[in-house]
Amino acid sequence: MAYNKVENATNRTFERTMTYDMYTDPKVLDKEMELVFSKSWQLVGHVSQVEKPGEFFTAEVAEEPIIIMRGTDGVLRAFYNVCPHRATKLERSESGKKKILQCMYHGWTFKTDGKLNKAPNFRGEEAACVQDACLRSIRMEVIESLIFVNLDDQATPLIESYGDFFDRLSEFPFLSELKRTHRKTRHIKANWKAYIDNYLECDHCHVAHPSFVDTLDMKDYQIITCENYSIQGTVVKPDKQYGEVDLNKAEMQGGSFFWLWPNLMLTFYPGPGNMASIEMIPVDANNSIAVYTYYFREDSLDKLTQEEKDLMTFAEQVRAEDIELVELEQIGFRSRAFNKGRYSSSEQAIVQFHDMMLEALDE
Ligand code: FES
Ligand SMILES: [Fe+2]
């Protein structure tokens, strides 16, 4: 989707926000599934999950069951996890390694490249007419070991969808060494957009995140809106000796927090090479699942250094504080007290997100 850099949000200060029914109305969520989640790049996993031929994992994108599989030919592919015979969900496990996928209904089998292997209930001439019944493939791209899919066959390639974002990312020198260390999910009693809104501003940091403002130099906190993504960040305080902030070079040694349209957040904290991703997955208008994945140089939690463990504890503390806030906010979204809020001058990244939402939904 084309989107130009947003105007400076200072002009938008005191303007009213999206109406609160955008956060509570199931019809809005239906529209978002169709026009936002089914048409945008969605992070689904990391190549370390599918390193060997035959390895796969399953996921859901915009309520569609999908499977990511490395073929016995070594090629990584994405398919709808749906049997072409009569729509049964094909692979039921979350992950595994197989040479053949078998549908449990009538026993059709598929090779790891998605082609039909056998259709036992079609014999003789019948067999010929189903031989090209393959799994339906899905657009997939891998950048910096992160696997993205897009259900829209016409979608702009991933690398062109987020301005210069991937150039910035490639400047984090440790990125190629990171492994997928840990993944956890958390049910949040709030609309997925409430969590994104919360992530996109730091006006609340002084009030809600004492450990965060104690560690990072909030005087230098910056928020920059770019094409289909935004960056926030700051250096750590001088006593923790990290260099000058330079958001334009993405060489920050302090915290660096990216948002990518529509529901992906990538965070980098100071210290040893690290990254965390957060995907917000709607459950219904008032509930979401947050998928948190931590990436360090080690592939399991028990191999982490104390410094890395402390970093995770720090990040989890900040998240717990945010979750409490958005769950309280969701209560108010449902209230008749108000139907809109206001933007402050430092909330330009929220303005960008909301403008993109309204444009995508044609509101
Ligand atoms: S539905 Fe899969 S084999 Fe019939
Ligand atoms: Fe926060």
Protein architecture, described:
The chain is α+β, with helices and mostly antiparallel strands. The chain folds into 2 domains: 9-40 and 163-360, Naphthalene 1,2-dioxygenase Alpha Subunit, Chain A, domain 1 (Alpha-Beta Complex), CATH 3.90.380.10; 48-150, Rieske [2Fe-2S] iron-sulphur domain (Rieske Iron-sulfur Protein, 3-layer Sandwich), CATH 2.102.10. Helices cover 24% and strands 27% of the residues. The protein is built from 9 helices and 17 strands. The strands form 4 sheets. Strands 11-17-16-15-14-13-12 form a 7-stranded antiparallel β-sheet, covered by helices on one side. Strands 4-3-2-5 form a 4-stranded antiparallel β-sheet, with no helix packed on it. A 3-stranded antiparallel β-sheet has the order 1-10-9, with no helix packed on it. The two termini are 16 Å apart. Residues 1-10 and 241-252 have low confidence and may be disordered. The protein binds FE2/S2 (inorganic) cluster (FES) and fe (ii) ion. Fe (ii) ion is lined by residues 198, 204, 208-209, 322. The site of fe (ii) ion has 5 residues, from loops.
